[in-house]
Amino acid sequence: MLDELYNELIKDHGNHPRNCRLMQDATAQAPGYNRTCGDSLMLFLKVEDGIIKDASFVGKGCQIFTASASLMTERLKGKTTEDAEKLFEEFHDVLTSDAPMGPELGKLAALGGVRNFPMRVKCATLAWHTMMNALTEKQDPATTE
Amino acid sequence: MSSLSSQVSATFDVEKIREDFPVLKQTIHGKPLVYLDSAATAQKPYSVIDAIRRFHEVDCANIHRGVHELSQRSTASYEETRTKTRKFLNARTKAELIFVRGTTEAVNLVSSSWGRKNVKAGDEIVISAMEHHSNIVPWQMLCEETGATLRVIPMNERGELILEEYEKLLNPRTKMVAFCHVSNALGTINPAKQMIEMAHKVGALTLVDGAQAAPHMKIDVQALDADFYAFSGHKVFGPTGIGILYGKAKLLNAMPPYQGGGDMIRTVTFEKTTYNELPYKFEAGTPNIAGGIGLGAALDYACKLGLDKIAAYEHELLVYGTEALSQIPGLKLIGTAREKAAVLSFVIEGLHPHDIGTVLDQQGIAVRTGHHCAQPVMDFFNLPATTRASLACYNTCAEIDALVKGIRKAQEVLT
Fold this sequence. Notes:
The structure holds 2 protein chains of 2 kinds.
Chain A: H1 2-5, H2 8-15, E1 28-33, E2 40-48, E3 51-60, H3 63-76, H4 81-96, H5 121-135
Antiparallel strand pairs in A: 1-2, 2-3
Helix pairs in contact in A: 2-3, 3-5, 4-5
Chain B: H1 7-11, H2 14-19, E1 27-28, E2 31-32, E3 34-35, H3 46-59, H4 69-89, E4 97-100, H5 103-118, E5 124-128, H6 137-146, E6 149-153, H7 163-169, E7 174-180, H8 192-201, E8 205-209, H9 221-224, E9 228-232, E10 243-247, H10 249-254, E11 265-268, E12 273-275, H11 289-305, H12 307-326, E13 331-333, E14 343-348, H13 353-362, E15 365-366, E16 368-370, H14 375-380, E17 386-390, H15 397-414
Parallel strand pairs in B: 3-15, 5-6, 5-7, 7-8, 8-9
Antiparallel strand pairs in B: 1-2, 4-10, 9-10, 11-12, 13-14, 14-17, 16-17
Helix pairs in contact in B: 3-11, 4-11, 5-6, 12-15, 13-15
């Protein structure tokens, strides 16, 4: 079970996150913070004509949180905002229910092991809730606690 | 690593003690439970579980009222805990011991009742850099309300309070010095007697948060000359939801009640209420009777083992654990005070405490990860969180070996 949770892809993205940078020309950004565990991030999106041209984050937290933020930003680029919202729903369902992992999840399926660790779902979903807040221009920091 | 070989461990039969704690006899994820989270809450021996069960099965009735047999029995065994607590803390009289929900409520009682009456704008409250949030926030609230100022005793890199700086903070405006006897996040044992003496020199009162001290060392409030001393039942093998506030009788007598209600009154008319005598003046409403009775059994248990013996045995565990963890490459202990209780807080280069905690849990090892309700301590060390193994008298060197093995496994799995 541990190997499924901390698989090679998660370790790679958790220890060497992609898109981990500030974005000067972001069109939307939002903070996320889990108070009790301390995971925190600022998420940046560059949206043009309803399409996410660029996504990045800066933050600190555990490997699950970091890998999820990394994989998410990688995946979001080129997606429409509607697609991003749909992806959020699918991803969220996979982690919080027995919903089957469809092929549309792609590399995100690497995070599927998290559902055997209910205490860690909040880590894997923080960046995603933050992304939703950025898209809807919510001011309060996102939290999954 | 070999097991302990000293005289202490020879006379302290930990295997026999472990038999008293049913929770320890289980497996977690197929591995024997290694419970290293006693600073969060201690496990309960059969005697405590039985006392609570007996109350509900045989003696259950409300206390301090009614002449029937059950009420007399429940009152007697609840009040018996006050007698036991008097001995446990070496208080002068039972009247100085107030039942509360826990240390948090004890601090709030003092900050509300004593604080509102005695603290005014321009006064100063001193706390320390290593306080639990429960000994920070109530004083902050009091300062906000009264216009008083909160001052903080700094600490050094080892996690020891800097007494020279403490001395400089003290002045005639200092009304209260509130600090922990033992730090929950670092394990530091503070020089309480000396700190109280220094506070008294400028006329300030003292409140000692004894939540982490009570299960691990002998406490003597008279020798300390503490004005207030608080501890929680659940950290000393008792149930949750019950704790004790000790206060000097003359201080408690001069304080207004904390909450109004039944039991804390002498007479009530719509024109005027007169209050009950100590300690009942501070105990409004039906209390946690089962909890109080369970606490009595818990104090009996701790005293039967002997607090001095517990302290000596745990110190050996600490020395063993410190040495064992220090061998792990990349591991840094947070909190290396020269006077320390059996708390091993640490970080490992490149690994996040929550990932370590998950890997350890899969091996049956229960540790605490996070900021330990002491965010200012984490800020001081510039860390978001640590992993904390906190030991009790039922832990063994073999369990520390399991922790070391678990940490090595975490390093393997996570990198």
